Amino acid sequence: MFRKPKGRAEDRLGIPQGTLYLLILTIVRREPSHGYGIAQRLQSLTDGAFQINPGSLFPALYALERDGMLRSVERASDNNRRARYYELTPRGRKRLEQEEQRWERVTNAIANVLRST
Amino acid sequence: MTFLYRLRAFVRWLVRRDEIERALDSDLEDYVARSTEAKIRDGMAPAAARRAALIELGGVEQAKTRVRETLSFQPLDSLVRDTRYAFRTMRRQKTFTALAVLCLALGIGANTTIFSFMDSVLFRALPVDRPAELVILQWTANRPTESVPWAMPGRGDVVAVESRLRSDNWSYPVLELFEGRRELFTEVFGSQPVSQLRIDGGDGPTGDGLYVTGNFFRSLGVGARAGRLLAEDDDRFEAPPVVVLSSVFGVARYGSAEAAVGQTIRLNDVAFTVIGVAPPAFFRLDPERRPSFYLPMRSGPLLVAAGPRLTLPGGPSRFAAALVGSTLEMYQDPEFYWVSAWARLRPGVSREQVQAALRSPFERFFADNLRNQASLPNPPRLEAASGTAGRDGMRRNYGETLFVLFAMVVVILTVACASIASLLLERATARRREMAVRMSLGAGRLSVIRNC
Description:
Largest sheet of chain B: 13 strands, mixed
Order of helices and strands of chain B: HHHHHHEEEEHEEHEEHHEEEHHEHEHHH
Strand content of chain A: 5-15%
Number of strands of chain B: 13
Low-confidence stretches of chain A: 1-13
Distance between the termini of chain A: 30 Å
Radius of gyration of chain A: 15 Å
Structural class of chain A: mainly alpha
Oligomer: heterodimer
Strand order of the largest sheet of chain A: 1-2
Largest sheet of chain A: 2 strands, antiparallel
Number of helices of chain B: 16
Largest interface: A-B, 29 and 27 residues
Distance between the termini of chain B: 28 Å
């Protein structure tokens, strides 16, 4: 559904192919965040299982912005710095809901198969 | 929908690239700064922390390149790659490429030729000033003309259209009758083709000419390429013999249009002074003829007097009749039909109005001058046809043929396409395995189709 950014695979650190966008969208749905924040959040939410390489994160963020799923706003952040915060657009929210449902169906199906053996 | 977003992003990328680059810079800097801070908090030395953060980023430039790749328009990018791939394939399969190119070249070439021919014959307006105002004055009469004496001496270009005969040839007095109708026309002008004029005397080459009335070029609004064109003063019996050359002939004979002006050229042993050269775009009123010489209408007797050795295979042709008959009388004989009459409409006058206004005067003139009263029941009927696209001699003769030819050529192009399609299909069959592999490796269907 989502298109990978061109080039190397972003799953060098174990993120399943194609799920990076889903994860990013989920993270910024909770609250808008900047690039570093998204990376940190992903790492802490997965107890360090997923580490996202910034070389993959930014292309993904720009691709999502390009496709109208995210928009960026510059605003003041902690310790007097300004940063670009990424937030979900209505289009992104809709897409995320679809993707979540799809993900759920897929994981349930896989889990059923795994349980049955 | 996504396509539109991407297109918009691509346009933004093209137009406001600086802004995006700045945003990207600040994003990456911010990331590095925050990462460095975190590492310092974890106890690293500031310099080492920054270095570690940069390594974590995996290189600022690499990251930027990947973002740029994301923002540049994917379809465009793959188009470029597919094109390159296509050229590579073509280089590798030379025979196939040659065959395909040949098929298409023949198909397209034939189509272009026929279409440009059709265009010049059927569709194009004359290369003259305001061609829409031009009318061809012509007549139609019931068949048969063999028993119509008034048309016999110089029948000129008479063609059969269904059960009627049609011609734009008139006697000179009729042309003068038209000329008198200033309320209808701003100009009335005439012309008559003449063929096989002997150039330089002797048995050398011959060329075709066109006798034109003195106002011919002025009426058409055509300017000279070099020198001057014929004027009314040149069209007198006692005027010195002058000629205007066609561009093609003038350049071929004298090297350039300018060099031709002032030269003397012998036609049927009469010395003519070249006063000018017609513009290159102007070579016809009739797509069938491309005269080399434009001669004053009243130079006819001169040429005929000087051309007694003219022999004509197969008896006198219609041109010969006009040529041999080019005596002083033919400018006065009301029943000798030989000159094509054209006119330029006064603005606001329609062709229907011309027909209505001229029919009865002409019929009266015709009846008054008839030597053989037997043809009175079958008088010619005057018509004013559009002269916008020139004399329709070729159209009436070849119009249908051309359309058939065009249809055939379209079929040929279709056949060419079909043969290329079958060549491609054959190649695709041979590459089924490769495609299967590519599909199974995850290539999109579209990209496989594009590359086959």
